[in-house]
């Protein structure tokens, strides 16, 4: 146990009772999590997240930080439902909307396969011609031509849309897609579960109860999935805590979530920036640390470097994250909204980022089996208690 965490256990520390729960493995309450959001003690929050991460990792893996060699494919950017915070399918961009043929998807998949990827992360908008038959054909052809590639594809929002187009139940839709080659599902489309925030942002797609139902059914039919939370769209700490607790409850029921990914909104191409508060770097680090201690039944927490940027993602590893995501190749959704991070990152650079942050780089597959432990030796970095947070934007 670090000296910093031992200090937070002293009874006079304002978070001592919560620190005691974390160390003793007791489940945190909504009030506990809200108090953590209200605290400006970043060092202690980081220490709690780091402690929980190490405990969750298990013996011999305490320093492991994962990444995957993957690519993103977005078959269409047309969307029948347009949320106010979305630049990817913004109505003003309809003239530039595209819809790839199945052959085009396969061409792109082969391009990634030549670079050695093990996973395709495939999501897109809601296009009426990209129906269940279209995605079944895509999945079957990828699996026929590239059987070693894991297909992590189709958010709960897309499953909802495909089931309505096909007039099939969610479960029937999932079973057909799994039979065609779907291996797991990403966690997009959750946004913030609160109805009030969703109404202000004109999120008409897939309400919280349906999103959770679809993921529960995916777990039932044997598909592992991820979960996300989008911040910077007018939510409060209470809304974020409520969101995470609903995810925790679903995980208690069906147990198929692999990873939680806190996301931030980018505003280019939207009309919401003047009425919402952009998350600060401090806020984003809190999301990582608090999710790690609150989501005690989630195996992994991701610091999504494509959104956070490389330096903040490295720091987030000291706040409870144990995954940086992947090499990605041409991510479109966040960059359509103004993200300036690189469009892809080579494996050696990914490993170097992890090692420089003081952790052991580990290449994984989609479901977190270890592919290779890097030969890079983790750097010796100052303990969190000794680091300055002066550069972190409050």
Helix fraction bin: 40-55%
Overall SS class:
alpha/beta
Shape: globular
Going by CATH, the homologous superfamily would be Aldolase class I
Contiguous uncertain segments of 5+ residues: 331-343
**H/E series:** HHHHEEHEHEHHEHHEHEHEHHEHHEE
What is the count of distinct domains?
1
User: Largest beta sheet, briefly?
Assistant: 4 strands, mixed
CATH class: Alpha Beta
- Rounded mean pLDDT score: 90
Kindly report how far apart the N and C termini lie: 27 Å
- Strand adjacency order, main sheet: 9-1-10-11
Give the CATH topology: TIM Barrel
Radius of gyration: 20 Å
Total beta strands: 11
The portion of residues forming beta strands comes to 5-15%
Number of helices: 16
Characterization of the model:
With 394 residues, the chain is of the alpha/beta class. It has one domain: Aldolase class I (TIM Barrel). Helix content is 42%, strand content 13%. It is built from 16 helices and 11 strands. The chain has a 4-stranded mixed β-sheet, with helices on one face. Strands 5-6-7-8 form a 4-stranded parallel β-sheet. The protein has a 3-stranded parallel β-sheet with strand order 2-3-4, with helices on one face. α6 links the parallel β3 and β4. α7 packs across α10. The radius of gyration is 20 Å and the shape is globular. About 3% of the residues have low confidence.
């Amino acid at each position: 146990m670090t000296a910093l965490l031992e200090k937070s256990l002293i009874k006079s520390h304002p978070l001592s009772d919560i620190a005691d729960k974390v160390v003793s493995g007791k489940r945190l309450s909504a009030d506990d999590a809200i108090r953590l959001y209200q605290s400006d003690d970043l060092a202690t929050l980081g220490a709690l997240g780091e402690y929980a991460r190490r405990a969750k990792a298990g013996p011999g893996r305490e320093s492991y930080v994962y990444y995957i060699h993957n690519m993103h494919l977005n078959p269409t950017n047309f969307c029948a439902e347009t949320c106010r915070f979305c630049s990817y399918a913004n109505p003003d961009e309809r003239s530039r909307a595209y819809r790839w043929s199945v052959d085009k998807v396969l061409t792109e998949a082969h391009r990634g396969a030549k670079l050695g990827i093990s996973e395709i992360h495939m999501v897109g908008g809601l296009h009426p011609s990209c129906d269940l038959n279209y995605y079944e054909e895509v999945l079957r052809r990828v699996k026929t031509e590239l059987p070693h590639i894991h297909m992590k594809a189709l958010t709960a929002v897309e499953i909802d849309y495909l089931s309505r187009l096909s007039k099939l139940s969610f479960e029937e839709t999932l079973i057909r897609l799994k039979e065609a080659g779907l291996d797991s599902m990403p966690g997009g489309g959750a946004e913030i579960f609160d109805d009030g925030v969703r109404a202000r942002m004109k999120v008409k797609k897939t309400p919280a109860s349906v999103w959770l139902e679809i993921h529960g059914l995916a777990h039932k039919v044997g598909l592992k999935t991820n979960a996300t939370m989008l911040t910077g769209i007018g939510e409060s700490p209470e809304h974020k805590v409520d969101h995470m607790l609903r995810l925790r409850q679903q995980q208690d029921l069906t147990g198929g979530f692999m990873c939680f990914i806190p996301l931030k909104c980018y505003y280019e191409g939207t009309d919401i920036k003047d009425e919402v508060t952009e998350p600060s770097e401090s806020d984003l680090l809190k999301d990582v640390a608090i999710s790690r201690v609150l989501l005690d039944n989630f195996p992994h927490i991701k610091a999504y470097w494509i959104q956070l940027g490389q330096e903040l993602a490295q720091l987030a590893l000291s706040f409870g994250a144990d995954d940086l995501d992947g090499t990605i190749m041409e991510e479109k959704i966040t960059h359509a909204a103004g993200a300036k991070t690189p469009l892809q990152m080579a494996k050696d650079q990914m490993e170097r980022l992890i090692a420089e942050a003081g952790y052991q780089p580990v290449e994984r597959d989609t479901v977190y089996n270890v592919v290779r432990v890097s030969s890079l030796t983790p750097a010796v970095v100052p303990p969190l208690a000794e680091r300055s947070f002066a550069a972190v934007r409050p």
